[in-house]
Basic amino acid ABC transporter substrate-binding protein
Amino acid sequence: MMRLILISILSISLFASCTKRTEEEPSKATEAQKSQNAELVVGTDAAYAPFESETSDKSIVGFDIEILKAIGEKSGLKLRFVNTPWEGLFNQLESGDRDILISAITINDERKKVMDFSEPYFEAVQLIVVPLSSKISKFSELKGKKIGVQTGTTGDEVASGLLGKTSDDIKRFEGTPLALQELSARGVDAVIADNGVINNFMANNKSDFKTISDPTFKKEFYGIAVKKGNTELIKKINEGLAAIKADGTYDSIFKKYFGDK
Ligand code: ARG
C-alpha cells in the first residue's frame, strides 16, 4: 500500500515537471523568435556622401548603408535606418534609441570606452582641402589659418592637434557639408575630413579646389557600433561582415563606390 502511494506521488510529480517544461518551451521560443525578428534601429548621420546621404525623397543611401544591409541579410537582422545628427549620435546607443550606428565612425580608444565596435570594415585617412589658388601646400602651414571641421570628428582632432583644442581658428560645424560650404564661401582657409568624403566633394569641384595629404595623419578604420556589452549583436554583425567579405558582396559594393582602388 505504502509503495503504491509512493509510486503514484513520484509519477505525479514527474508528470507535473514534464508538463511544466513543455509549457515553458513554446513561450521561450517565441521570445527568442521575437528578438530575432525585432526591427533594429540604425543611426547614421546621413550627410557624409558617399558613405551615407539622403536622397531628395528622404531615403538613406550610400556605401555604409549597402554594407550594413548586406550584413543584415546574412545574419537575419531586420534594419531600419534613421538619419541622426552626428552630435549626440553616440549617446543614442546608451539611451537605447538606436541599436546600431554606422556612420563612417573611426574606431578609437576613447569611443571604445562607451560603445562596442565590429571588426573594421573600411580604411580611411584625413585629407585637407583648400581653394585651388591657396598658397598652403602642407598641413603645418595651416597654423594661423582658419580650419573648418565637423565637431567631434577625427578631423577636429587633427586640427586641434595643430592649433590647440581651444583655438578660435578652428571653426566647428554640425555637419561636414556645412564646413565645405564655408570653404566655398571662403569663411575658412581649409577643411579637414575623411579622404572618402573630400574625394567625393572634389569629384564635382576639381576646378576650384585641391587636396593636401599629410604623412603624419594616421590610418583610421571604420567600425559599426552597438551598445557596450551587446555581444550577441556584435557577433552577428561580425559574422555577417565576414560572410560578405568571403562571398564577394563586400568587394562589389566597394567597387560600386570607390572603383578599383
Ligand atoms: N571618421 C570620422 C570620425 O569618426 C568622421 C565621421 C563622420 N561621419 C558622419 N557620418 N558625419 O570622427
In short: The two ends are 86 Å apart (CA to CA).
